[in-house]
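Trying the structure run again after the queue cleared.
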Amino acid sequence: MSVLALGAHRAAYEVRGYFRAGDTLFFTFLFPVFMLALFSTIFQEEGGIAGGPGVPELSAAELYLPAMLAAGLLLSGFQNLAVDIAMERSDGTLKRLGGTPLSPVSYFAGKIAQVLTTGILQAFILIVVAALVFDVALPSDADSWITFTWVFFLGIIASALMGIAVSALPRSGRSATAVVVPIALVLQFVSGVYIFFWQLPDWLQYVASAFPLVWMARGMRAAFLPAEYATLEPGDGWELGWVAMALGIWLLVGLILSRATFRWIRRDA
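Done. Tokens:
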């Protein structure tokens, strides 16, 4: 079988396995939906939220939708794959796969295809819940949806590749969650997911901008928030060219690191 055919076969296996794992399904697939509902419910009695003078008030659901979409990319790609692959390495699954015709490229393709499949479904559910349950007004222009599309695909692929690379850090499957989850959690707090990005200190905004989640969240805000909110961003604009460049760089870095660090068996095992 060709590399692509093996990758497609592996992708189908990965998708079936993903939806059979209840804990993974909740913490990486439904968690952003749960958080959107939680924040929207907590703040719904406070009325609209505005970022400053001249910026229109929006509901909590409208403000948190872009953040939860970006967080979903990180959780589905980075956190899910990093933990999953570390577990497979620890329980001997990767060792067995290494003795088959499956190449690392086909293995990566299967994992990324699984993340794309679940990520698209997750984003769809998030947007539908926001619109139907919390009355979020969705973009009506094609440019916003085009922005959402390319930010989504660049972000989730970059996240997946970084997840594959980081999976080499845990020394065992038992320690995978303890290593990976804090990284993902800190990135969410400093990247404008749970705390509005414009409320963070300037120095923290610049530090966080070295990581891809900031740019995923910024691109999602550009797609879903009114143009006035661009004045709250560093540089007083969405700067989508920088978003594309940053995500493209992280995609390339993730590709190089994942191929350089991936092993069927840990060298120090």
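The chain has one domain: 3-261. Worth checking whether this holds up in the mutant runs.
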